[in-house]
């Protein structure tokens, strides 16, 4: 054992003794642009560490943070949940445009979410969150450049939050608040005022009826799967006023009747933009499809069984998470 220890010390002395501080290390012969490219491949925890190597590396590393436009909360990218939990590290990403942290990629992280949400740059354009625990999300409603927002199953999405969102996030074109059980008609009324909204996903909101659906000039997609209190009236108003709608998912909306189908048929007959209107409904609903099949219109109806719906839900959740 003693002989082996001496052998290790001898090898270490040989390595240290041969090091010459006056000889330039090969990596330092690279220019700054090359080093930035190399640093971009490192886990973020290592990028923080290399700032302590020398002044040149620290300056290059600081500049390289500006090249991050998209970021996910993934341990393979971060390398350490301790670094991920640090608001000081997140503040380095001043040019960040897209940030995603879903439960599936964050499951091994400790509980950093209440802190990181307030450390994100307000210039974000895309923000995705799923099944997380926050103490407050009000700062999201003040991200004026936000264009796409997904907050899945978050109890803090309330009517008050949506009012703030509608007042400040005028560039928002995609909004998904599926599973936000505290949202009522007041919140829906607020988000219908978003001028750029194209894709609205309101799946599994138990309180909404659709009475406050109104004119949304750019709306193309509406998903209200599993909204058990959603009624025909609001949807008919929406179809009549919004001629760019191409897709409505109403599976599991138990109070939808033939009144909506009749309205959709009339809308499809009078469309002049040649856009096909596609409705997804429950197969167990008592729908009369004969008038639709007897006319050559821009209306397509898909009736889903419970099993088909479950498969689609799983595919959608896999994509989301």
Automatic annotation (TrEMBL):
The keyword 4Fe-4S is annotated on this UniProt entry: no
PANTHER family reported in the protein's UniProt record: MITOCHONDRIAL ATP SYNTHASE COUPLING FACTOR B (PTHR13382)
The keyword Signal appears for this protein: no
Pfam families, sorted: F-box
GO cellular component: cytoplasm
Annotated keywords: Ubl conjugation pathway
Domain F-box, chain residue ranges per copy: 24-71
InterPro entries linked: F-box-like_dom_sf (IPR036047), F-box_dom (IPR001810), F-box_LRR-repeat (IPR050648), Leu-rich_rpt_Cys-con_subtyp (IPR006553), LRR_dom_sf (IPR032675)
Domain of life: Eukaryota
Protein name: F-box domain-containing protein
């Amino acid at each position: 054992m003693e002989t082996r220890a001496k052998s290790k010390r001898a090898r270490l002395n040989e390595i240290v003794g041969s090091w010459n501080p006056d000889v330039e290390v090969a990596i330092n012969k690279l220019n700054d642009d090359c080093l930035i490219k190399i640093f971009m491949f490192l886990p973020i925890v290592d990028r923080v560490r290399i700032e302590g190597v020398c002044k040149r590396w620290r300056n290059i590393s600081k500049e390289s943070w500006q090249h991050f436009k998209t970021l996910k909360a993934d341990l393979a990218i971060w390398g350490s949940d301790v670094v991920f939990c640090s608001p000081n590290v997140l503040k380095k990403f001043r040019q960040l445009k897209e940030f995603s942290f879903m439960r599936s990629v964050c499951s091994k992280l400790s509980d950093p979410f209440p802190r990181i949400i307030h450390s994100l740059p307000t210039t974000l354009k895309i923000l995705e969150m799923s099944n997380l625990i926050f103490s407050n999300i009000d700062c999201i409603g003040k991200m004026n450049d936000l264009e796409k927002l997904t907050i899945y199953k978050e109890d803090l999405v309330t009517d008050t939050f949506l009012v703030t969102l509608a007042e400040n996030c005028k560039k928002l074109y995609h909004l998904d608040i599926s599973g936000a059980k505290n949202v009522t008609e007041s919140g829906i009324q607020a988000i219908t005022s978003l001028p750029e909204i194209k894709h609205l996903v309101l799946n599994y909101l138990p309180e909404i009826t659709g009475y406050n659906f109104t004119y949304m000039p750019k709306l193309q997609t509406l998903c209200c799967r599993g909204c058990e209190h959603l009624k025909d009236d609001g949807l008919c108003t929406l179809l009549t006023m919004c001629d760019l709608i191409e897709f409505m998912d109403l599976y599991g909306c138990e109070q939808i009747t033939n009144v909506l189908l009749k309205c959709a048929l009339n809308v499809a007959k009078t469309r002049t933009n040649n856009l096909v209107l596609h409705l997804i409904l429950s197969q167990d609903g008592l729908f009369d499809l004969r008038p639709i099949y007897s006319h050559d219109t821009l209306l397509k109806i898909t009736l889903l069984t419970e099993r088909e719906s479950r498969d689609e839900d799983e595919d959608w959740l896999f994509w989301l998470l």
